[in-house]
Amino acid sequence: MQNSELIGEIGLTHYLILSALLFVAGMAGVLLRRNAIVILMSVELMLNAVNLSFVAFSHYLGQMDGQVMVFFVMTIAAAEVSVGLAILVSIFKRYKEINVRFFEHLKG
Amino acid sequence: MSADVFLFWFLAILTLAGGLTTVLVTNPIYSALSLAFTMIGVSALFVSLNAYFLAGVQLIVYAGAVTVLFVMVLMMFDLKHELITFTRGKISGLVKAGLVALFAGLIVGSVLITSDVFSKSGGAPEAVIGGDTTKALGTILFSKYIFGFEALGVLLLIVAIGAVALARSKGGTHAK
Q: Does the distance separating the beta carbons of B162 and A86 come in below 8 Å?
């Protein structure tokens, strides 16, 4: 009975759990991958998961503030990607490699 | 099973599969491809939540601009061989994977425990926004959040200057 209700009726909980699983996938990428570009991609994944939960709350609680937050998060994420990739380009110019083990000491 | 229920499960599986492939595939180009799929799935989920403007912005900014930026930088780097894809060390890797699983269980458990709070208090069916929300979003963005909006403009200007300055430097923190 509980199961058929869980599958057949979509509510806030479903979106929140999907968002949590996406966030955790991104977190696993940040922790486990060694390629700096893939780490940036995983950060994007985490930001998207948070956006999804913001929009779900905004829809189910009937308030627009969540969507404004998503708008801000998207802008800041785009800025973060551009700065992060610029840093990676300058790192690649120096080390010819973007595996994080080459610059884990962050020394010039 | 009605159409929107089917749509949710289809998009949820698509998005989760895309996210997991992004993390697990060893070739960074395939990571970028599945990241684009994930972005498109999230955008479609926004449509199913009646956030049409955000869905469009998601498609343009993430699936368009950010993915193109990633692929362009990947092509510049010429990463044919990737020496170590994942972290070295079995024990530290296992500890990290265990921490991730613990965190997942924590969030999902707390969501499931508190799920009846929202359905009781604010989540009455008449409170659910129906129809197009773009006009309401624009109104609140240019009235209540106008200061944040202007600050974002300044931030984007600073980021544009900073990205150019970083890309011009020779690399390292003490560039000559």
A: yes
Phi, psi dihedrals of residue B89, rounded to the nearest 5°: 90, 115
Inside any domain, residue B23 = yes
Tens-place pLDDT, residues A41-70:
999 999 999 999 999 999 888 888 889 999
Domain that holds residue A86: 2-102
d(CA A85, CA A43): 13
Last residue of a domain, one of B85, B102, B128: B85
Q: Chains A, B: CB contacts under 8 A, how many?
A: 251
First to last CA, chain A: 62
Using a CB-CB distance cutoff of 8 angstroms, which residues of chain B are in contact with residue A7?
1, 5, 9
Whether A6 has its CB under 8 Å from any CB of chain B: the answer is no
Decide if the complex's ipTM is over 0.85.
yes
Chain A residues touching residue B150 (CB < 8 angstroms) = none
State how far the Cα of B132 lies from the Cα of B96, in Å rounded to an integer. Answer: 43
Q: How many CA atoms lie within 13 A of B57 on its CB side?
A: 18
Q: Which segment of A96-100, B107-111, B171-175 scores lowest on mean pLDDT?
A: B171-175
| Rg of chain B in Å (alpha carbons) | 21
- Look at residue B175 in the predicted model and tell me its pLDDT: 47
Domain of residue B19: give its range: 1-85
Integer Cα distance of A96 and A94 in angstroms: 6
Domain CATH code at residue B61: 1.20.120.1200
